[in-house]
Design goal:
Two copies of one chain form a homodimer. Chain A is about 30% helix and about 30% strand. Chain A is an alpha/beta fold. Chain A has one domain: Vaccinia Virus protein VP39 (Rossmann fold, 3-Layer(aba) Sandwich). In chain A, the strands form three sheets. In chain A, strands 3-2-1-4-5-11-10 form a seven-stranded mixed sheet, sandwiched between helices. In chain A, strands 6-7 form a two-stranded antiparallel ribbon. Chain A has a two-stranded antiparallel ribbon with strand order 8-9. Chains A and B meet through strand 7, helix 7 and strand 10 of A and strand 7, helix 7 and strand 10 of B. Strand 7 of chain A pairs antiparallel with strand 7 of chain B, so a sheet runs across the interface.
Chain lengths: ~250, ~250
């Protein structure tokens, strides 16, 4: 199955870098706090970050006590920045697609992935590899775009009133899984839509026990400062799941 | 919290009975097959059916080998039919709200509930009671309206083209949980919307391990006979979850 390396596209990369450089974005306000709220105590833990990008999370895992962190990413451009800006003696960055994870011979206590899985076609293959490199009772935590987002097949995403206020999401094809072509800085960014039930079933059939699920919504404080995020009540942007590897007996 | 007994309303009851008497409906085509596909072997098992209605499922549980079946329902009218049409020496029907389940002193091996939880305000209380009356490793299987349905807050549910074909679901307020007033045969039928993540978290925090989730979609065969069910690809009507009670060690 296809492995997509969109972050090495120069135009995509510059566009992405610009929004990540702006501190007020949905990642910083919603996805990152939710992800870290799910993290276990990392003291002396070995952590693997799939799709580590610029390595900010890897750095934070070390600061939070991890004894060893490996960050993998398919994009050399992203890893170049990671090595420059977020290097540490305890961190190793490896240029590798997460679809090739079966080649990884090390064991980890915690596997994390932030906003990368919706680019992955072979989700069940990646989940299977994660299961095998996790230690007993190891934790697996990931975020991805919410299925209410990934199902989008084109056309206007929203119906708005005459003042431009979003009234509702034009939801179609939630039950039609598979590839979606979208435009994000460049044409033909491929995403893969899976329903809530397919995601859950893939995880539990592999041997994970789901411990928590988050679809982040804005607090009153955030809404007061950034009222535009009221839209998340119609369509949460993210889905996060925390799991534990079960030992079969 | 409120306990709703809409099925004892005469107009609601007659309207409901009419659609259930018609064999071609979404329950028969999608919900019931999915529910029974999740059932474990019932041989010598004690089964509790929450919101058993006319008792058709109770009867089938006995036919499938259950040693004892208890069906509870808040509606006397429904239970009257259950006793007339689906009685059996192994079945006991009890007129009781599922919110009062904590009073039940018996133990069960399997708890089932079909399309009743979206009428229940105190979902976590009911789930807690179910946990306590289940035997070790007991199974809990339920269906409810899909969260993409229960979130509806009024207005047109669909945007259609000039020929009346459904183009997309007008999805709003998915992130706003709580009571919804809807019209189904009578005014003011109360339903309670919960997101996928709230449903999952309530179950796992109580001590259930999720084994499977189904959002039923039509097969090619069904679509050929009943093309109108193509709409389910935009909005699945049902959500079903199968769980096991975990033993804390």
């Amino acid at each position: 199955m296809a492995k997509q390396n969109i972050y090495d596209n120069a135009i995509f990369y510059e566009g992405y870098k610009k929004i990540r450089d702006n501190n007020i974005n949905a990642n910083n306000l919603f996805e990152i706090p939710a992800l870290f709220s799910m993290m276990p105590d990392l003291k002396n833990k070995r952590v693997l970050d799939l799709g580590c990008g610029f390595g900010e999370h890897c750095k934070r895992f070390v600061e939070n006590g991890a004894s060893k962190v490996v960050g993998i990413d398919i994009s050399e451009k992203m890893l170049k920045v990671a090595k420059e800006e977020n290097s540490d003696a305890k961190i190793t960055y490896i240029n590798m697609a997460m679809e090739d994870l079966a080649q990884m011979k090390e064991q980890f206590d915690v596997v994390v992935s932030s906003l990368a899985f919706h680019y992955v076609e072979d989700f069940s293959g990646v989940v299977e590899s994660i299961y095998h490199i996790l230690s007993d009772n190891g934790m697996f935590i990931f975020s991805q775009e919410n299925p209410l987002c990934t199902c989008h097949t084109g056309g206007n995403r929203w119906t708005k009133d005459e003042n431009g206020k979003k009234l509702y999401l034009n939801l179609a094809n939630y039950g039609v899984e598979g590839e979606r072509e979208s435009v994000w800085f460049v044409d033909n960014v491929k995403k893969y839509h899976r329903t809530f039930s397919t995601i859950v079933n893939t995880l539990v059939e592999t041997g994970f026990s789901i411990e928590k699920m988050i679809e982040p919504l804005p607090s009153d404080e955030i809404l007061e400062k950034y009222p535009e995020y009221n839209d998340l009540f119609h369509k949460p942007d993210f889905l996060l799941i925390k799991m534990r590897k079960i030992n079969f007996y």
